[in-house]
């Protein structure tokens, strides 16, 4: 339930590219609105881990990572309905009775969401009763694991109506409000997790602390704030008790299917490997090792997705009005920006991640070099395709999405079941990276580039050269710092990172010149 677009991109600035005043402001507002959210994500998945390890053993931490991954997977129950609703809300803007039609559609979709909650709630309870997760995932020794899994999954199912409300906020230019409300819920949830961890120390207590804040956010947003912000929601044309017809409801799911397939695949690549490794790898320490190493690769991917979504919204606007020249330039510049950002982060992580990993886990979890390198380099390689994915979602390419993302999910699952039993966590990493490179980049991204750019092959070659230069330069600088500044501990790690940032800052300082930036932009093949 994470968005990035602040305003509907209907007011395109007159200037071209990322430098246009109106467009630049919208992009900056989109990125800044998610900055706090990304920091809170880092806190949840990185900074809380030492607190958990202070109270729990490695086995209990692995159990919590599996529970958290299962809760994150529950959002697939949205089934693409949020994006379907957003498209309809945007279409209603051209109608005479915009508010009335929006209110009717909102009410009908809300009833569909409530029906989905009821059905999934029953299925979850039955599944956990007849197939206890502690047995299936190998956490029989973890107290309250089954109860915590039920609380996490069922609680996240109950938060689904917030997706519909946040979609309306996005279309009506109030998305920033939902971001800050959710940030408040995430912050309170993290404080509650630490408090319950200190007082009770059980998986169930921490799961309740996390879910309760998300439920409060959903109730406030859907039941109180949305009707106050949009009074027309109170006067929907249908009687409150009327349910949408079965045919109409099925039609909404059918039109949302391509978005659902794309979202399911993205979430599966982040969360399913944790569950598969938990089920297929008997070594519990290896499970925790995989979960912790995967966290940083997922954060790199998540950061790139957050950066691409505001750009994708602008691209979708250009596509809708047929401004091909502006679309082409923005896509080329945005692709380079996202790829450069991912490579720069990976270049900094490669040399210093061993020191951070030792500090992060207090030395209780061993460091795996091949696993880390595979995941980080894969995160850099997939970066250009993330913008293509975002653009496909914003330009109504449902057929392309369902073909490519469906194939990627199948490839990932097949490779996972083949490679994980043989190679353990490294097999899961290879499955994720291979599906990204061969399907998402090799099919989806290249097809979008061929349809959008005049020089797609030259653009890909430019991206590859830039990626190699950035990653190798950053890694070599880091290795030199590690060799020249020996030591260990938190202070040593901070000193290493500070020196690396200073060195990279000096190397990139020529980009502070606007004239140099403009010359570089014109060198980008578009």
From TrEMBL:
Keywords: Cell membrane, Membrane, Transmembrane, Transmembrane helix
Keyword Electron transport recorded: no
The protein's name: Polysaccharide biosynthesis protein C-terminal domain-containing protein
Cytoplasm is among the record's keywords: no
Transmembrane segments: 35-56, 62-81, 110-130, 136-158, 204-224, 330-353, 373-393, 400-420, 426-448, 460-484, 490-512
Cell compartments where the protein resides: Cell membrane
Residue runs in coiled coils: none
The organism of origin for this protein: Bradyrhizobium xenonodulans
Membrane association type: Multi-pass membrane protein
Residue numbers spanned by region Disordered: 1-21
InterPro entries: Poly_Biosynth_Transport (IPR050833)
Recorded superkingdom: Bacteria
